[in-house]
Amino acid sequence: MPRPMGACRRAARFRQGRGAAPRTGAARRRRDHGCRCLLVPLFTGAATRRAPEVTEVTDAAGPPGPLIGSGRAADVYAVDGGRVLRRYRTAHSCAAEADLMRYLREAGYPVPEVFAVAGPDLVMERLSGRDMLADLASRPWRVARHARTLARLHNQLHQVAAPPGLRQPLGPGGQVMHLDLHPGNVMLTAGGPVVIDWSGGCAGPAGADVAMAYLIMATSDVDGLPSWLVPLARTLRRIFLRRFRAAVRDDPAPHLARAAELRLNDLNVRPAEAARLRRLAGQAAAERPQ
């Protein structure tokens, strides 16, 4: 999951983050729709046309259009003015992810529209806006507002009953979980926030989803910032986490140790991040009533 509140591929990594922080419009668009950082994935445009057959946009002979984003696991291409194609680089089926996104969209939750899916390829709506992490980087005074918005998105998601057949990596529960719902995976559009990157979608107890988001934001490295800005980024992260926990409905505390254990299995977690995860997990275990 982004990694976390710091700066992302372009500035500071709020979590699942990667990238450095370019400033030009073209460079700013270089980011994966479902990446792991927290400061910047960009999809611009709006869905306006019906998608052609899947074979037209998933031609194995070459890319279907301009590369507009590249993450650790997938690349994102512009298909036309209204759609993007996210293509995993390894054998991977997007069918379950597409099914969950369609299910959530029908339930009224803000996710991109899915047009087509075939193996590792997912064609979906192109969004106009930038992600919450990028907005925090340029307008840090919005930290409290964005923390409340993220909490609201968690609360709204956890009202949705999970469809049958979803995996339950953090124990039994009846709610849909994102497992990576941090600022880098929230696109701010004219129509409101939209949640992207549903590759980790699953079912379980709502508090476990909040716990995973909290851990990602609290433990991820801050990348791409000059040293004099790092203390400011850390201060903003503390404010964001405090406001987020105050506004989110489900208590993450009982689930922190188990969520940390799952996160430690992520090969993208760095040694310093792993040390922070173990420390938080140990604190959570010590504070848990016996």
Low-confidence stretches: 1-57
In angstroms, what separates the terminal alpha carbons?
A: 30 Å
* CATH topology grouping of the largest domain: Transferase(Phosphotransferase), domain 1
Mind telling me the CATH superfamily name of the largest domain?
Transferase(Phosphotransferase) domain 1
CATH class division of the largest domain: Mainly Alpha
Write a concise keyword list for the protein shown above:
290 residues, Transferase(Phosphotransferase), domain 1, Phosphorylase Kinase, domain 1, single chain, 9 helices, disordered N terminus, 2 domains, five-stranded antiparallel beta sheet, alpha+beta
Your description of this structure?
The chain is an alpha+beta fold and about 290 residues long. Helices cover about 35% and strands about 15% of the residues. It folds into two domains: about 50-130, Phosphorylase Kinase, domain 1; about 130-285, Transferase(Phosphotransferase), domain 1, CATH 1.10.510.10. The strands form three sheets. A five-stranded antiparallel sheet has the order 1-2-3-5-4. α6 crosses α8 (about 255-265). It is globular and about 50 Å long. The relative contact order is 0.17.
